[in-house]
Amino acid sequence: MKVELANTAGFCFGVKRAVEMVYEQAEKHKGERVYTFGPIIHNEEVIKDMEERGVSVIHSVEELEDLKDGTVIIRSHGVPKAICDILEEKGIPYVDATCPFVKKIHKIVAKKSAEGYHIVIIGNGSHPEVEGIKGWAGDGATVVQTTEEAERFKIASNKVCIVSQTTFNYNKFKELVEIISEKMYNVIVLNTICSATKERQEEARGIAKRVEAMLVIGDRRSSNTQKLFEICSNACADTYYIQTLDDLDMNQLRSVETVGITAGASTPNKIIEEVQNNVRIII
Ligand code: F3S
Predict the structure, then answer these.
(1) DSSP at 117
(2) Is the pTM of the predicted complex or chain greater than 0.85?
(3) Separation of CA 100 and ligand 1 centre (Å)
(4) Mutual orientation of helices 13-28 and 44-52 as an angle, nearest 10°?
(5) Tens digits of per-residue pLDDT, 71-83?
(6) Ligand 1 nearest atom to the CA of residue 77, by list position
(7) Residues 6+ apart with CB under 8 A from 204
(8) Catalytic pick among 129, 178, 203, 257
(9) Which is nearest to 145 in space by CA: 168, 161, 128?
């Protein structure tokens, strides 16, 4: 009879730091307005809890431009430089909760583009993190996500600096870098993939392989939780996707002796512990 909880379940370093910063600011500015630019994480429970403490979500640049007061928190994905400029021009104080690993990419692309390099970001162009990185890269930035895009990539200059979205798949990154490198002679490649996602996925796969049932906890809209579910389902036929303890049908677990638990990067510890404690009881 065993419950195995993944060490890497839940918040990564950058998300944990950003969430803590929001709670700190809410406490510090009690009774005043505090905003996050975009939801701090994809988790309804946490957003609701933050709202109760006076933290609202700003959804667009227009809304940001209309702000008259308050404190704005920039989430772990980071934002384009233009957003910081708007806040500075308006004199609205802001707290930058951009993950230091993402901030490092901002610094690299700003420096290299100032040195005349064309920046290539390997990643998903519609992801806020990539939009943010692009916004620090001067004029010359191209986002490449697919083999076709890498093959089509062509620029007049030969100086190219390639970075990656932190959550991009390493093998795909390598493949795209090879295609681009073959066409140019002055290419700087910086692998800026963060290991947190990969470690979480590998640990989940390992646990799913050795347990009879696997629980993946996370918000329905969280893409990294969906990916975890896919990985675990491939390794363990009895894999369940739950958002909170309420989604768990305890009867499904009564006949098993080993249960594994993992959670997406935006799942709070409180929810993970609740599930773990309850599963322990039925087993
Ligand atoms: Fe930062 Fe890596 Fe998390 S880049 S936000 S620690 S996935």
Answers:
(1) P
(2) yes
(3) 8
(4) 20
(5) 999 999 999 999 9
(6) 5
(7) 6, 8, 214, 216, 228, 231, 232, 260, 262
(8) 129
(9) 168
